[in-house]
Amino acid sequence: MPKYVVFDFDGTLANSLTLFIEAYNEMATREGYRIVQESDLEPLSKMSIPERCKYLNFPLRNIPFAAPKLYRYVRESGVGFQFFPGIKELLDELKEEGYRLAIISSNAKDIISQSLKAHQVDYFDEILCSKFIFSKDKMIKKLLNKYKLTPADALYVGDEERDITACNKAGIKVVWAGWGYDDAEVALKANPDYIAENPTEILPIVSKLSVN
Questions:
Q1: Are residues 26 and 95 in the same domain?
Q2: N- or C-end of the chain: fewer Cβ atoms within 10 A?
Q3: 133 and 50, same structural domain?
């Protein structure tokens, strides 16, 4: 039975794609990488992260060094992230039902905190972040250890293949958020435990697990 519902931030709670593409393109123009055009979005959504890096002529090893540049652009833009439709209502319902909420993300903690404050959301007990995009399994284990949770005590909701892979490594169940960025063609290869096409489908999944 899950006690904690853990969310990815970008692409799951926040619709941040447009702003991060702007940030990436600004960096790509300066540093000589391929910029992302509107016509690139669909094919990129069907690629793994290594495939995307190859497509954009961007070295995979440079991701940890690029992240601070992208976050700086986001901070300086002064543009906040919007929640996906139905997310605020979902968080309200989960909190009302007594579930503890957490975020595990590759975004910067201060950006996430500012976005939550702007939406008047103060429901989250924990926000764990890392610029290393393939380290979410370690952050999940850190959360479990900190609150003395078993893998069955947590359920993760994320939109990317790497979210699903991280949960499989950490041994917790995961819901693929079908409204996010990764196409089903990519995400389902990682074998999520559950699929939600929109936020209204999350609470029934959590409730069913709580009964079992």
A1: no
A2: C
A3: no
Name the H helices within 32-170: 41-45, 49-55, 63-77, 87-96, 109-118, 136-146, 161-170
> Using CA atoms, how far apart are residues 84 and 147, in angstroms rounded to an integer?
29
Domain match, 67 and 87 both = no
Q: Tokens 């503890």, residue?
A: 100
Burial class (CB in 10 A: 0-12, 13-18, 19+), 76: exposed
Total tally of structural domains belonging to the chain: 2
pLDDT tens track for 67-124? 888 888 888 876 678 899 999 999 999 999 999 999 999 888 998 998 898 888 999 9
Whole-model pTM: value is: 0.92
pLDDT tens figures, 194-212: 999 999 999 999 998 877 6
Tokens, residue 30: 């300066």
Tell whether 63 and 103 lie within a shared domain.
Answer: no
Residues 112 and 21 in one domain: no
209's CB contacts (< 8 A; 6+ apart) are: 1, 2, 155, 173
Q: How far apart are CA 115 and CA 118, in angstroms?
A: 5
State the residue range of the domain holding 152: 4-15+81-211
Looking at the fold, whether 194 and 143 belong to one and the same domain comes out as: yes
> What does the radius of gyration of the chain's CA atoms come to, in whole angstroms?
17
